[in-house]
Amino acid sequence: MSESLTLAINTLAPTFDLTDIFGRRINLKDYRGKRVIVGFFRHAGCPFCNIRIHRLQKKHAAFKALGLEMIFFFESEEKVLKSHEFHVDVNPIPLISDPDKIWYQKYGIESSGVKSAVSHVTSFFQTVVEAKMKGLPVHMMEGNESIKTIPAEFLIDDKGMVRKVHYARSLTDRMKLETISKFAETGNV
C-alpha cells in the first residue's frame, strides 16, 4: 500500500459498487442526496476498531435521522466478519469486506508498523479490557489481515464530495464525534 496517497478535501470520493456482508448492493452513487461517513477499519478482532464501531453504532439512529449514513470497511474476509455476532448485529450499517485492500488503496489507507507498534505498546491492554467489558470481539488476525493497517474516516457530502478526511495518527486516534455530529446536522465541518 502506498503511504503517500491521500484523498484531498473538496474532491469527488472514489465511487464503489460492492456487496456488503449482508448481501446488499452498496453503490456510493446511490447515497447522493445524503451525507455519509465512510470508515476503514483493521481486522475483525481489533479492539481499537470494534470500540469505535460500537460508539458509532450507538449514534446510528440519531445520525440517520439527520440524513447521515454510515458505511464501514474491514480488511477481514466476509466469513470472519459473519462469524462474530457483534459484526452481524452492526446491520443495518453496511459492512464491506475488502481482504485484498483494493478500496483501502483507493482511499489511501496507511500501512505503518511504527504507528501500530506504538499504539500497541501504549494502549493495547487497556483497550482490550474495555472491549472485553463491552462484550466486543478481540482475537488474533486471520488470513490477509495486517497488524500495520491504520484506520481512516471520511465525511462525504450529498454530492459525493469529500469534506473531511481523518487519517489516524495512532490506533486510538479517530475523528471527533462532535465533528461528525456537526456534519450530520449542517453538512459543514
From TrEMBL:
SUPFAM superfamilies, sorted: Thioredoxin-like
Record-linked Pfam families: AhpC-TSA (PF00578)
Superkingdom field: Bacteria
Residue ranges constituting the Thioredoxin domain according to the UniProt record: 7-185
GO molecular-function terms, A-Z: antioxidant activity; oxidoreductase activity
Matches recorded under CDD domains: PRX_like2
Protein name, per record: Peroxiredoxin
PANTHER family: PROTEIN DIPZ (PTHR42852:SF13), THIOL:DISULFIDE INTERCHANGE PROTEIN DSBE (PTHR42852)
Source organism of the structure: Reichenbachiella agariperforans
